[in-house]
Design a protein that fits this description.
Radius of gyration: 15 Å
InterPro entries: Adhesion/Biosynth-related (IPR050904), FAS1_dom_sf (IPR036378), FAS1_domain (IPR000782)
Helix content: 25-40%
Largest sheet: 7 strands, mixed
Organism: Gelidibacter gilvus
CATH architecture: Roll
Protein name: Fasciclin domain-containing protein
Length: 174
């Protein structure tokens, strides 16, 4: 599902967290400039995932904002970024990543084809379910928690980011 080169030139630069997100930069290069994603960037660094998310991909990242991380129980983020919890942090972060570049239009088509729901496999191995409420796209984790896509189609050189308003968590029974 690679985009044609001529389409690359038409991709717009979007504003996220007060910073321009350039389609010519990779996921990490753009995310570090977003004031709304400092917690996510710190977590990606703590989980040693910078190289992965800087690689060719393509990836689709459902990127929780700082406010999304703030909704977690107090102390959760501090605990997760501790070196002894790196595997759990990696699992949670890669649960927000899907292989391939899936635009909002692609996801909407999957939802339509799935008669209202699309089950999507994450890089972590779990699944998230995409669905729509009116024109808004939501993703639900394996525990039934939902996040709304607040900014869609933030194109990157190695994929696309969809900003979400909650942190998704993989199923606890594995």
């Amino acid at each position: 599902m690679m985009k044609k080169p001529e389409n690359l030139m038409k991709q717009e630069t979007k504003m996220v967290g007060g910073a321009e997100m350039y389609p010519t930069k990779n996921i990490v290069e753009n995310a570090v400039n977003s004031k709304e994603h400092t917690t996510l960037v710190a977590a990606v660094k703590a989980a040693d995932l910078v190289d992965v998310l800087s690689s060719e991909g393509p990836f689709t990242v459902f990127a929780p904002t700082n406010a999304a991380f703030d909704k977690l129980p107090k102390g959760t983020v501090i605990t997760l970024v501790m070196p002894e919890n790196i595997e759990k942090l990696q699992e949670i972060l890669t649960y927000h990543v899907v292989a391939g570049k899936w635009s909002a239009q692609d996801i909407a088509k999957l939802i339509k084809d799935g008669k209202g729901k699309a089950v999507i496999k994450t890089v972590a191995g779990g699944t998230i379910t995409a669905w729509m409420k009116g024109t808004d796209v939501y993703v639900t984790d394996e525990n039934g928690n939902s996040a709304k896509v607040t900014i869609a189609d933030v194109n990157q050189s190695n994929g696309v980011i969809h900003v979400i308003d909650a942190v998704l968590l993989p199923g606890m029974a594995k």
